[in-house]
Amino acid sequence: MAPRHLRLASRRVPFKVLFILLIFVPICVIGILIHAQHISYLFRPLWDNPPSPFKHVPHYYAENVSMEHLCLLHGWSLRSEPRRVFDAIIFSNELDILEIRWRELHPYITKFVILESNTTFTGIPKPLFFDSNRFRFAFVKEKIVHGVFSGRFATRGTHESPFGLEFEQRRAMNGLLRGSGISNGDLIIMSDADEIPSPHTVKLLQWCEEIPHAIHLELKHYMYSFEFPVDYSSWRATIQIFGPQTGYRHSRQTDLILSDSGWHCSFCFRRLQEFVFKMTAYSHADRVRRKGFLNYSRIQKLICRGDDLFDMLPEEYTFRELIKKMGPIPHSASAVHLPAYLIENADKLRFLLPGGCLRTHE
């Protein structure tokens, strides 16, 4: 009997193995499901490859230097007259940033082409924010070409990608552009409202001959205000010479990028409700994983710390960059080389400057 007893005992599953199978493994699986996004971003350098690098075009500028000299420094020549420039954006609710953009650029722009929708990219009904605030832009009313895109409202049970609705709006911009009077050879700026080319960048490209047919703009990226500079990773804005095949896009169109060409100020809102609106409205609204993310007091604390609204790790392709950008964005006390209208109206726009992180509720 002794040998048989030993054989039966040896077949029993050890308690440690049972604990691992019944308790530890399910906990690990649940943890992975809850934190899948963090894990994916943490190991992104292992599973994803960066896009091919841009070819940076050196950008020369200093005050009181002639345009002829600046064109020559870039390897171009001076035109006898400037090109017409059309600034084309799809608009959501960034009224303060839009005013800064148009105040900066209006001396160089022929038409401001703006398209807004009655729904968000996520299918939520929204007011026509620009149309109801036209009085703020009376200084360029003769230059405005405004269009309304009739969006599709999300219905319960549907899972339509917000990127599809965003693409439809960008495609609708093509028709609005052609009705704006744009002609072959004119310049067109394709960017979001918060991607602001510097005035001297636009002036350079409208006055110089032999510029590239299309060129991306390297913009200094800020988060929440100009107190939190992130890096120079913003590249989607482009300026190109309009032609028969030109289509409105917000994606890579060339390998060329003009260095240090302006500012990109993400989530640069005056009111906390505007933060909540964008967090639920734009194409990455799936990043709001819990209702608590939309709490006003939470958002306010994160703004003043320069921390991430969505509790996400940086989207980087190397572990070095990922580790370098973990944690809050360092504060900057510099308000140099910013849009002139912002500095001239510092009292009204204090929330966008160093030390102005507190926001209003309404």
Automatic annotation (TrEMBL):
<dbReference type="GO" id="GO:0016020">
    <property type="term" value="C:membrane"/>
</dbReference>
<dbReference type="GO" id="GO:0006044">
    <property type="term" value="P:N-acetylglucosamine metabolic process"/>
</dbReference>
<dbReference type="InterPro" id="IPR006813">
    <property type="entry name" value="Glyco_trans_17"/>
</dbReference>
<keyword id="KW-0472">Membrane</keyword>
<feature type="transmembrane region" description="Helical">
    <location>
        <begin position="13"/>
        <end position="34"/>
    </location>
</feature>
<protein>
    <recommendedName>
        <fullName>Beta-1,4-mannosyl-glycoprotein 4-beta-N-acetylglucosaminyltransferase</fullName>
    </recommendedName>
</protein>
<keyword id="KW-0812">Transmembrane</keyword>
<keyword id="KW-1133">Transmembrane helix</keyword>
<dbReference type="Pfam" id="PF04724">
    <property type="entry name" value="Glyco_transf_17"/>
</dbReference>
<dbReference type="GO" id="GO:0003830">
    <property type="term" value="F:beta-1,4-mannosylglycoprotein 4-beta-N-acetylglucosaminyltransferase activity"/>
</dbReference>
